[in-house]
Amino acid sequence: MTKVVGVRFKPAGKVYDFNAGAFVLKMGDPVIVETEQGLGLGVVAVDPIHRDAAPTDRPLKKVFRLATENDFEQREKNIEIEKQAYAFCQQCIARLSIQMHLFTVESTFDANKLTFFFTAEGRVDFRELVKMLVKEFRIRIEMRQVGIRNQAKMCGGMGRCGRELCCSSFLEKFEPVSIRMAKEQGLSLNPTKISGQCGRLMCCLTYENATYHELKSTFPKIGRMVNTPEGKAKVIRHNIICNRIAVRTEDNREIEFNLDDLPPKPQSKPRNLDN
């Protein structure tokens, strides 16, 4: 049985499992852990639990130790290195006239590798750029092209709701978003109103989509004729949240009814299977 703890390296990053060993840890504790890139500084996001390891499970990396003041000083030094690397790389990109948008640089905790994150329209030949970076910093260099949504997650910002972007504050992964979700919720289909800072459809369209879909299943479809207290009428609009529908009567009046006020739908007669 292994004591497993969940560790997060970024505020809204993925939670990774580590072997806590004999350490007594709680949520929020800063720790130094073993990763594939070497040692890393993270924060406990999930309290330790005892778990049986399946025979096919890979051995978990271990928590190396609790973080100290020196570790936070090392992180501050890494931030300075990242700023210098970003400025130098921007100069190199301009000198080489490469069509790419560099937006951040990340250093490993032990400062033996720099990762440069960028976006671009297509494939980019950055071989000369890497040579210049290696010559300047004398450490391992990795160039990583990511999508526009990942850029928003890493850079952060404010959404049109006035709050911090969901992807940079709590979303661990992106869910598929479609224009159909906006239609289901009766939202404007104007791209400027349903797109986020990244220019893609807002992730929050997924939050209430299942609820709207469930509630909408109880409503008569738009265009269907229904019985109302005013007689037969055609459904022209739904108000899902208020549980109301708008109809147009046969004498061309537009009226709103509560869904519960409509006469119940007549049940079909059971078929006689003996004939």
User: Which CATH architecture of the largest domain is right?
Assistant: 2-Layer Sandwich
List the total number of helices.
7
Question: How helical, in percent, are the residues?
Answer: 25-40%
Whole-number total of structural domains: 4
Which CATH top level class of the largest domain fits?
Alpha Beta
Overall 3D form: elongated
Spell the H/E element sequence. EEEEEHEEHEHHHHHEEEE
Instruction: Report how far the terminal alpha carbons are from each other.
Output: 67 Å
Mean pLDDT, rounded to whole units?
Answer: 88
C-alpha Rg, in Å?
Answer: 28 Å
Break the fold down into its secondary structure elements and pairings.
Layout (H helix, E strand, L loop, with lengths): L1 E7 L6 E5 L10 E6 L2 E14 L11 E4 L2 H28 L4 E7 L5 E7 L7 H11 L2 E6 L2 H8 L10 H4 L9 H6 L6 H4 L14 H8 L8 E4 L2 E9 L4 E6 L4 E5 L17
Parallel strand pairs: 7-8
Antiparallel strand pairs: 1-2, 1-4, 3-4, 3-5, 6-7, 9-10, 10-11, 11-12
Helix pairs in contact: 1-2
Walk me through the structure.
This protein folds into four domains: 2-67, no CATH class; 73-146, GMP Synthetase, Chain A, domain 3 (2-Layer Sandwich); 151-211, no CATH class; 225-261, no CATH class. It contains seven helices and twelve strands. The model has no long low-confidence stretch (mean pLDDT 88). With 275 residues, it is of the alpha+beta class. A five-stranded antiparallel beta sheet has the order 2-1-4-3-5, with no helix packed on it. It has a four-stranded antiparallel beta sheet with strand order 9-10-11-12, with no helix packed on it. Strands 6-7-8 form a three-stranded mixed beta sheet, with helices on both faces. The relative contact order is 0.08. The chain is elongated and about 80 Å long. The protein is 25% helix and 29% strand.
